[in-house]
Structure formats: C-alpha cells, structure tokens
Here is the input.
Amino acid sequence: MKIGYARTSTLDQTAGLDAQRRDLEAAGCEKLFEEQVSSVDKAKRVKLGDALEFCREGDALVVTKLDRLARSTQHLLSIVEGLEAKGVSLEILEMGIDTRNATGKLMLTMLGGIAEFERRIMLERQREGIAKAKAEGKYKGRQPTARAKAEEMHRLSGEGRTRREIAETLGVSERSVYRVLSNS
Here is the structure.
C-alpha cells in the first residue's frame, strides 16, 4: 500500500497542500496524512507520526518533495531507518527516488545533505541581512500584533467574552489572548 504524507508550513498555504494531495493521489496513494505545521517544530508533527505508525511491511511512504518530510539529514536518516526497520520504503516523487534499491538510498542520503547545506546557507544569509538592516536602522522586527490589541482584549474580557471569542474577534491566537490577559 502507498501511504502519502503532505505538509505545508503555514495554514494559508492551501494551494500547496492541494497540489501535494493531487500528486500523491496520482502516484497511487490509498491513504493520505496531511498537516499544516512548520517542519522546525517536529514535536507538533502529529500526522507524520501517525503516517509512520500506520505503515506496515511492504508499504511505501510517499512524499512529493524532500523538504516536506525532513529539514535535516539526521532527521531524514532517522525516518528512513525507522521505515526500513518496519520493511517500508520511501518514495520522493519530485526526485524520482525510491529507497527499495541501493541507488535510491545513496541518492537520498546525498540529496538530504545538500538540502540541509542549502538551508543553512539560506539562514546564514538571512541572519546577515537582518544584522545589516538593523545596523542601518531599517529593521525593526515583526510588529507585536497581540500586544497592540491588549486594551481591546481587556475590554472584551471585561464584557465576559471567552478567550476563544476574543481571539476570533481580534484575529489573534487564543494563546496570545491568554498571554496578554495573564500578564496584566
């Protein structure tokens, strides 16, 4: 059985999730696991864990791209090792990689290392750009959206609204509402 795993980093990337779903179904995946969460936050990637748990001997876990599965070579190899222990292969559609053969395993390891290298370089450049912008007084960082609405949160709370209602009304997370109301 082919089991598909699709992931986007944010909730507003619905087109990306739709495209992955389409490609996984076209590849013959009978069961799909989908989530919208950053790969950096591995602890919250519940659906990936569910997909890995669901796989049985002879199955194939299928992803559209390598970066949908893992951000580091170490994490990737850990996933592959766990799959191999269960007798499950990994297919990456975009790269034409299938770990059922030695060439596929070799290519996956090499490309995983290259992907991690690229990501580290991109993050390094980003940090350098931010440092330069800060030095020039052009970078102020992300504006705190929830704190700017603290007065409104307190007013709504005083009216008896729940944290969830306040969050939905003001377009912020429920956790942000909790944080603002608790720190006052």
